[in-house]
Design a protein that fits this description.
about 325 residues; alpha/beta; Rossmann fold; seven-stranded mixed sheet; four-stranded mixed sheet; globular; binds the ligand Nc1ncnc2c1ncn2[C@@H]1O[C@H](C[S@+](CC[C@H]([NH3+])C(=O)[O-])CC(=O)[O-])[C@@H](O)[C@H]1O; transferase; tRNA processing
Length: about 325
């Protein structure tokens, strides 16, 4: 279980040291339960990734990019492409790795652009991203100056994708841990907590908001992004079995209802900084996923509705202080 030892050593001497009371046990348990099938296969794929000699330029401010086309010879480049494709579906990105464009299903950079101007300066900050997927925004947070960046996401494939990217962008201040939000103790240690695209997957959204608050230092900033619907402060949509073909969608509040929930949970200075109907150029099928995408989740005759007849995905970004 060496893979997290370096993380433990780092936090032992920083403000996250009290996490060591619970974390090693949880990750050991995770490891014991994930040693089967796909994991071994993916680990071999990771081990086979080519390495580039010398230092390559890393760009994390405007995109997530390392090196240039030509850093690898043709054979190695082809190997890189084939190995990276073994980690399909690539949902969140895009990444540019030595000239290989991993054109992910989502343009996660669009979301970053929508929020970047509204958040507090991340310079020197401890930052947590809950439900970080493959970790695309972790790199952008680091690019924005964060000192120590931790993402959590329970989906094993996303950890593998993150490790594949980290193989090339070897920054030891950026980490992804395979945990769900419900496994976090009250750390009260992060200056900024991001929770984007996760609230609607939670069956208890109010408990979720308390869990987020428990990760922040007093006065720290929450950046929460979620699906919303039109309506007043009493409007919340709880869809039937599926919403946009997703099974695990529970609560879609209106902007005003979401603000009221945040205030009710003790957050201050609650505001909505952006709303946006998800467009077909932000979530679309590419050669890096084999499954359907947004176009297939909408009513073919009326793109303002999902295929089930609900309002099409509209997202809002909320900022608040603990
Ligand atoms: N209990 C849980 N705890 C933490 N994460 C979870 C949990 N359950 C699921 N997830 C994770 O939450 C992420 C939601 S995707 C948002 C990605 C990124 N933030 C984005 O804003 O682009 C949105 C979407 O695809 O609907 C997935 O990576 C899950 O594995």
């Amino acid at each position: 279980m060496k893979q997290f030892n370096h993380f433990y050593q780092q936090i032992a001497s920083n403000r996250l040291s009290h996490w060591l009371n619970t974390l090693p046990g949880q990750l050991t348990h995770w490891h014991e339960n994930n040693l089967h099938g796909d994991y071994k296969h993916w680990q071999k794929t990771l081990d086979a990734l080519p390495s580039v000699d010398g230092n390559s330029a890393i760009e994390l401010i405007n995109s997530v990019k390392v090196g240039e086309l030509g850093d690898l010879n043709n054979g190695e480049f082809k190997r890189l492409e084939n190995l990276m494709k073994k980690f399909k579906p690539w949902r969140k990105g895009p990444y540019h790795i030595h000239g290989l464009h991993i054109d992910t299903e989502w343009r996660s950079d669009f979301k970053w652009q929508r929020l970047a101007q509204h958040i507090s300066d991340l310079s020197g900050k401890y930052v947590l991203d809950i439900g970080c997927g493959s970790g695309y925004h972790l790199w952008r947070m680091r690019g924005a100056g964060a000192k120590f960046v931790v993402g959590i996401d329970p989906t094993q494939l996303f950890l593998m994708q993150f490790n594949a990217i980290k193989h090339f962008i070897n920054d030891d201040q950026v980490h992804l841990l395979p945990l769900g939000v419900e496994q976090l103790p009250e750390l009260k240690a992060f200056d900024t907590v991001f929770a984007m695209g996760v609230l609607y997957h939670r069956r208890s959204p109010i408990d979720f908001l308390y869990q987020l608050k428990a990760q922040l230092v007093k006065g720290g900033e929450l950046v929460l992004e979620t699906l919303i619907v039109d309506g007043d402060e009493n409007t919340v949509l709880v869809p039937g079995e599926r919403y946009a073909k997703m099974r695990n969608v529970w609560f879609l509040p209106s902007e005003q209802a979401m603000c009221a929930w945040l205030e009710r949970c003790g957050f201050n200075n609650v505001r909505v900084v952006n709303t946006d109907v998800t467009a077909l150029d932000e979530q679309r099928k590419t050669q890096w996923i084999d499954t359907e995408s947004l176009q297939d989740f909408l009513d073919p005759n009326d793109s303002s509705k999902t295929i089930e007849g609900y309002p099409a995905p509209k997202r809002a970004i909320f900022i608040a202080n603990a």
